[in-house]
Amino acid sequence: MTSGPQIGDVVGELLRDTLAVATGVGPRPMVGGRLPRPVIEIIERDDGLINGAPAAHYLDGPADWQPYDHRAVERARGETLDIGVGAGRIALRLQELGVPVTGLDTSLGALKVCRYRGVHRLVHGTVDDHVADGHRYDTFLLLGNNLGLFEGRERAPELLAALAALARPGAQIIAHGTDPYGTRDPVHTGYHELNRRRGRLGGQLRLRLRYRELATDWFDYLVCSPTEFAELVQGSAWRLTDVDDRDAPYYLATLRLAG
Q1: CA end-to-end distance (rounded Å), the chain
Q2: pLDDT band at 26 (very low <50, low <70, confident <90, very high)
Q3: Exposed/middle/buried for 96, CB within 10 Å: 0-12, 13-18, 19+?
């Protein structure tokens, strides 16, 4: 018996089970040995807050998407890197539209789900790892709230530099983010203040993901305002050229490679 969760591929395991529940193919988590159990992704924050959300949305087709997802896909052009490809919902749509797309993820399990669902080009690793592969892209997508991968003040310059190293002239980044500061919930406003006292951005989350007996390591994930994001971009090779906040508090930030 262990005293805590095992560190493992949480995303891969929950996506595998989500696919099994949706298709009936493969082992499924069961209730009482008979009925498929809904797959719930658990998000644990470092102040003790725990949230859970059904994972089925990772398989959603375009008919179930939010408007900003459609607008992001419409803006993709040329060779496209879908960063944090997950179960491949965005990559599959781009393939249908004839956009050459590569899915990138650190989860081997996620890539297996993508491959099963028909995503053609997949890369295992981080953006930094992929720089050495020599591939170059016209569009980088960080959808599904994956602006969060910028993490905070320390990581953002490194990620922007890695993306610039992967970029063709005139390349663009399209990132989906969430402005966290409209809430009046003291659980969240108190966390924002705690972060600021620690010298962090208010919405710089410290998280780990949980599923069944597995957990990820703790990691930073950034939820920030467009103004804060613009400040993070300053001094990089990129310029923030557009913020589409028609679905506020959600927004699409578009960056273009300078020069």
Answers
A1: 58
A2: confident
A3: exposed
For 143-179, the pLDDT digits (tens) are 999 999 999 999 999 999 999 999 999 999 999 999 9
Q: Find how far residue 97's CA is from the centre of its chain.
A: 22
Domains belonging to the chain, first-starting first, are 66-180+218-257 (3.40.50.150)
Which two structure tokens, joined as six digits, stand for 89? 């919902």
To the nearest 5 percent, what fractions of the chain are helix, strand and coil?
Answer: 35, 30, 35
Question: Is there a cis peptide before residue 62, judged by omega within 30 degrees of 0?
Answer: no
H helices, E strands: number in the chain: 8, 15
* Lowest-pLDDT range of 15-24, 26-35, 214-223, 230-239: 26-35
* The token pair that represents 118 in the structure block: 């028909």
What would the two tokens of residue 119 be? 């995503």
DSSP 154: T
- Strand 250-257's sheet: what is its strand order? 122-124, 101-105, 80-83, 137-142, 167-178, 250-257, 238-244
Decide: helix, strand or coil at residue 237: coil
Contacts of residue 2, defined as CB under 8 A and 6 or more positions apart, other chains included, come to none
Work out the angle at residue 257's Cα, subtended by the Cα atoms of residues 163 and 225, and round it to the nearest 5 degrees: 75
